[in-house]
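Q: what does this look like with S-adenosylmethionine bound?
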Amino acid sequence: MESSMKPLSSDYSYYLKTFKLFLERSTEHQCLQKFIDENLPDIVTRAYLNSSKCSGAAEQQLSRDRVGDAHNYPSAFSMLPEDHPLGTRRPAKFEPNVLGIGSGSGKIDFEILHKIQSKHPSLSIHDEVVEPNPEQISSYQARVKDESQGLNISSTWNQMSSEEYEKQVKERNESKKFDLIHMIQVLYYVQSVHDSIKFLHSLLESNGKLLIVYVSDGSGWHSLWKTFGSRFTSSSLFLEVRKLLDEMRMKYQIHELSSDLDITECFIEGNENGELLLDFLTEVMHFSKTAPAALKTEVLQYLRQPQCSREEDGKVIFNNTLQVIVIDC
Ligand SMILES: C[S@@+](CC[C@H](N)C(=O)[O-])C[C@H]1O[C@@H](n2cnc3c(N)ncnc32)[C@H](O)[C@@H]1O
C-alpha cells in the first residue's frame, strides 16, 4: 500500500455513491436481468424438482404453474417419468428458501424472486437477506413494500456481514437449508473466499444451487487488478475463483455475461464523476487526490490499453464482462 490511500469500503455512504454511478455508467444490471430472464428459471426449476423437500404434491403444484409455459422448461419437466421417485416423498408444503448475501438495495435479488414467483405463482417463497450497509437494507425494505403486492414472498433481514451471519448461524446451531443462495458481486469483500464458499455451500438443501457473480478472467477488472492490485489498498479483486473451486472439488457451471462500463469521464482532469469511477475501479477513496502521482498516471494509461478497454464513438469502454458461477450442492 502506498501513501495515504484508504479503502473505499471504509465509508459505506461514499462507497454507495460510487457504486450507484458505476451502475449508471455500466450495463451490469441489464446483463444480469437478461441472465435472470433467460437462464435462471431452468436452474431454479431443476434445483426445486430434485430437492428432497419436493413432494409429489409439490411437483404437481409446479406442473400446474407451468401450464401454458411449457417451452421454458422442456427438459426439467418432460424428462420425469411417471413413476419418478419424487412422487413417493411426502414432506410438508413446498416453500423454497432463498438466501441473498450482500443484497445491496435488492434490485437484482427482487428480480430473482419475481422471476421465480411469476413462473410458479402458487409457491410461497422465503427470502433471507444478509447485507451490512444500513442504507442498503432500508432501500431493500422500501422496495419490498412498494413492489411486493400480489407476490407470495416473506423476508428476514440480517443487517450484518457474511462473516457475522456465519457466526450467528453457528452460535444458534441453526439447521435451516436453502434451495438457492446467491452472492452477486460480493466475493471481493469477504475476509476469506474459501471459508465463505465452504460455509454457504454447507447451507444448501440437497440439489440446491449457490450462484456467485464475479468479474470474468477476461475482463478489464482482472487485468487491472492483476497488474496494480498490490499497489492499491487491497488485492481482493484479483482472485482465481475457478482454481479455488477446483481445489475445493466443487461441481459448477460457468456462464459468461458480456458487459460494458463507460469510463470516458476518468480521462477528463478534475471531472467529479470520473474521479468517483476511478475510486470504484481501484477501491480507493479519493484515488485521484491520494494516490502517488506516478501510480495515477500509470493506472490512467493502463485503463486505455486493450486488456482493459476499447474506443468506440469517441468513448472509452471498459470491459466489464461478468461470470455467473452456478455451484451444485
Ligand atoms: C457491489 S455491491 C453488490 C450489491 C448487489 N448484490 C448488486 O449486485 O446490486 C456489494 C455489496 O456487498 C455488501 N458487502 C460488503 N462486504 C460484505 C460482507 N463481508 N458480507 C456481505 N455483504 C457485504 C456491500 O454492502 C454491498 O451492498
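The chain has 14 helices and twelve strands. The domain at 6-40+95-328 is CATH 3.40.50.150 (Rossmann fold).
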